[in-house]
Amino acid sequence: MSISIELLEEHRMFDGWQQRYRHFSSSLQCSMTFSIYLPPPRDDSPPPVVYWLSGLTCNDENFTTKAGAQRIAAELGIVLVMPDTSPRGDDVANDEGYDLGQGAGFYLNATQSPWAAHFRMYDYLIDELPLLVQEHFNISDRQSIMGHSMGGHGALMLALRNPQRFRSASAFAPIVNPCQVPWGRKAFTAYLGADESQWLQYDSCHLLSSLPSEQETFPILVDQGDSDQFLADQLQPAKLAELARQRGWPLQLRVQPGYDHSYYTIASFVEDHLRFHAARLF
Amino acid sequence: MSISIELLEEHRMFDGWQQRYRHFSSSLQCSMTFSIYLPPPRDDSPPPVVYWLSGLTCNDENFTTKAGAQRIAAELGIVLVMPDTSPRGDDVANDEGYDLGQGAGFYLNATQSPWAAHFRMYDYLIDELPLLVQEHFNISDRQSIMGHSMGGHGALMLALRNPQRFRSASAFAPIVNPCQVPWGRKAFTAYLGADESQWLQYDSCHLLSSLPSEQETFPILVDQGDSDQFLADQLQPAKLAELARQRGWPLQLRVQPGYDHSYYTIASFVEDHLRFHAARLF
């Protein structure tokens, strides 16, 4: 089974290639775009991959254009894959709020109408997109994942549910406990229904607490600006850090003084994140 | 005489500050914004400044968000100042084309109706903005200038007309001979009128050829992608490089294979440009 992908644009960057593709997603039942950075070839061994998941309102291009990550990926020899944040299109359900519907998929499989028909980002990211990337690009099976805000939730949640898949996970200002904060409660109610027991499978705090004690660990790095306007109400990464401490999970939470929720923060620390992942990927 | 400036936003970035300001410009007779990056303080000596001039359709935020220059500016201790590309506002003349009017000021003083009332970017950049920046920020009088495309034209033209002001100049894909290419001829006809002798004062090829032989030189660095769609029709930086060679002016033109006209190219080489300027600023 071969899925075709269409090259939309490509740009030479740091002696590698920044590309953008469109393809039809069988998980999401719509056309999707993703961006990918291919570093300059180093030797015969295929490079590892770091997935980046973006936050609310973003698509595959925010990180591509604003984070400055390609410089480090080129140096380290890492492929970066930037998916979109939700299914898209006129046929896809949407909402007037910026925090529900298109641009706000929360990386889960929706079960409720009108969302269930397309909003299956969990399947897309765990099953479909990695296979498609593996098929079309010369990459190794070594993978790590990182993200920002809603995408930080996605990165941590996907890694904690699939610890055999990811060698490390990191996040900027992640939503770590979506069951308990306004963004998460609004989205989970809409996508998953009122039965909160169905929400837990997508809550990083719950997932970390529930992993069997014999579970092999992978390291997690979290950066959180202390001038982030969403810190107190939506993010609270110290909750996850405390749960990690209690069970001896290797999680480092760095509180960055004066930094906010923007891509200026991501740009400032993305080098640390990629070097953190590289230590596990090579 | 003190001109007030209004802080619109600020973000911590690489331990310095990315800020955006609004002020009323007496040169342009309208409200203007500019962005500035203030690196972390190094010692008691005030930092030098590098001005960045953007290309057609851009404002002060394109370079700010996409180039990744603040990382290097933070390391080197350089202030970056990003002006807008033209006067702005409902009272300011405009055109339907992307290459004339707002967003396309070409860094000159217009003499023709309806442009002359506001389009005085040359005066704004040489007289007004540097004074305003000097008044509000702790900076040295050491300055260099760089830019992209129309802004590469602006950087080279301003430096060649004011060699005592700038220690170095650099450009990505600059319009070096606007009198002879479609973008320049359209803009100069509109802003300066049909008398082409009035255009020469804004043409870098003409300016470099006309400088007196005893003129003290300053170094110029130009990066040009050979996959730039505008290379043949609009840019032709080899023209300027040949004139520099003929008169022994220190200009390096680097042709970058596979690179295009985008910010992906700028991001790939901006570190080289800032280190080039730093060698003259410190």
TrEMBL record, chains A, B:
Descriptive protein name: S-formylglutathione hydrolase
Catalytic activity: S-formylglutathione + H2O = formate + glutathione + H(+)
Broadest EC class assigned to this enzyme: hydrolase
Superkingdom of source: Bacteria
GO function term, MF aspect, one: carboxylic ester hydrolase activity
UniProt EC number: 3.1.2.12
Keyword Hydrolase: yes
Similarity-based family: Belongs to the esterase D family.
Active site: 149, 228, 261
Gene Ontology CC terms, in alphabetical order: cytosol
An individual GO BP term: formaldehyde catabolic process
UniProt KW keywords: Hydrolase, Serine esterase
NCBIfam families per the UniProt record, alphabetical: fghA_ester_D
Record Pfam families: Esterase (PF00756)
Residue ranges the record marks as coiled coil: none
Role: Serine hydrolase involved in the detoxification of formaldehyde.
